[in-house]
Amino acid sequence: xxxxxxxxxxxxxxxxxxxxxxxxxxxxxxxxxxxxxxxxxxxxxxxxxxxxxxxxxxxxxxxxxxxxxxxxxxxxxxxxxxxxxxxxxxxxxxxxxxxxxxxxxxxxxxxxxxxxxxxxxxxxxxxxxxxxxxxxxxxxxxxxxxxxxxxxxxxxxxxxxxxxxxxxxxxxxxxxxxxxxxxxxxxxxxxxxxxxxxxxxxxxxxxxxxxxxxxxxxxxxxxxxxxxxxxxxxxxxxxxxxxxxxxxxxxxxxxxxxxxxxxxxxxxxxxxxxxxxxxxxxxxxxxxxxxxxxxxxxxxxxxxxxxxxxxxxxxxxxxxxxxxxxxxxxxxxxxxxxxxxxxxxxxxxxxxxxxxxxxxxxxxxxxxxxxxxxxxxxxxxxxxxxxxxxxxxxxxxxxxxxxxxxxxxxxxxxxxxxxxxxxxxxxxxxxxxxxxxxxxxx
Length: 442
Ligand code: PMP
Prior knowledge:
The protein is of the alpha/beta class. It has 2 domains: 6-68 and 324-441, Aspartate Aminotransferase, domain 1, CATH 3.90.1150; 71-322, Type I PLP-dependent aspartate aminotransferase-like (Major domain) (Aspartate Aminotransferase, domain 2), CATH 3.40.640. It contains 13 helices and 18 strands. The chain has helices at residues 6-15, 71-81, 93-104, 117-132, 191-200, 224-236, 256-261, 287-290, 307-322, 325-346, 372-376, 380-392, 413-441, and strands at residues 38-42, 45-48, 53-56, 110-114, 136-140, 153-154, 169-170, 183-186, 205-210, 213-214, 220-221, 240-245, 267-270, 281-285, 352-356, 359-363, 395-396, 405-406. Strand 1 (38-42) and strand 2 (45-48) form a beta hairpin. The radius of gyration is 22 Å and the shape is globular. The relative contact order is 0.16.
């Protein structure tokens, strides 16, 4: 099936004259010919301005945990709107939501709100530095923690020659070179490597910033022993463990990845699923650390704890806490994996899944990756090409293989059937295109 994107193309041509790349976030630009604009979202599907409908597995990079336009959350948001706006003063609802979060996530002894994941992680790093009196920090290769300078040192694995150590480079122009020396990289699932870094830079490291299921890197998952060892190493070397649950929070379990692994962060951050898409994020953690806020550590913001977002958060979290939404999401994710596996297996295509059924990475190698370096050795070009066919078939995944497939509570049997039909067609089209290329070059 070939979609018409005539309206999106026409809009792109106009938009690009006023908006850099024709979009509001670099990640939304998929090329001059492929960038689409959304008309609406309902449940587990979105419709673009050409009236193409897609089963959506991006879900805005995770927020729509209950599905788009959830009537219960939207009604709560409307009630939040009745308060009248933002006041640069606190409201009673902050405490209600904070208490709910503390109940669901035991490590969240105290809670502060921000607007975006980036803001929450930025505040977490500042807090860790203030608490420890140290400036350095440790990141994992393949991690993404938002668009702020300290988190924008990264390892561009696609450019790695697979010989020697991959380079660390800034993710963008405009990142001060002077900040480079503060960031130290380790590989996922390598406790010895982590200890070596903590030893080498002893006394200068404030925190390990870690996402135990890497939501921007296939969902590469920490092995339980590794995460336990990392926790113990943080304690041994006096380093705070910041667990970034911006993607995993209120998704992989009611208590997030910390519940899944039975590990406690010193500081943790949440966003995405908290309010089913309304902008809010959470900075939380150990009482003695969090009490530094306002006692030496700055934190605030005009739109922080907006009543609309808080009301949406309270309702979303109540639904996640009290219903079987997360169990249904995981069950759908498992069925999705099984269905995809049947299609790929029947064609002899080696593959595996990574992460959690609610946010699955599809990986083209038999054994799931343990590190970002493993991704480099897999056939991600197959994925990249297949994604274009999937879009034509009405299945929306990220064009980049490193983004997991997100599931929401509104994905139903119809969505699954449409997805698996589209998946089979897309896989066959990708295989056929590869065969045609080989014939041509023979
Ligand atoms: N941390 C993680 C793990 C994320 O996945 C993201 C966003 N994808 C962020 C932080 C930044 O969140 P935001 O885009 O809301 O600023």
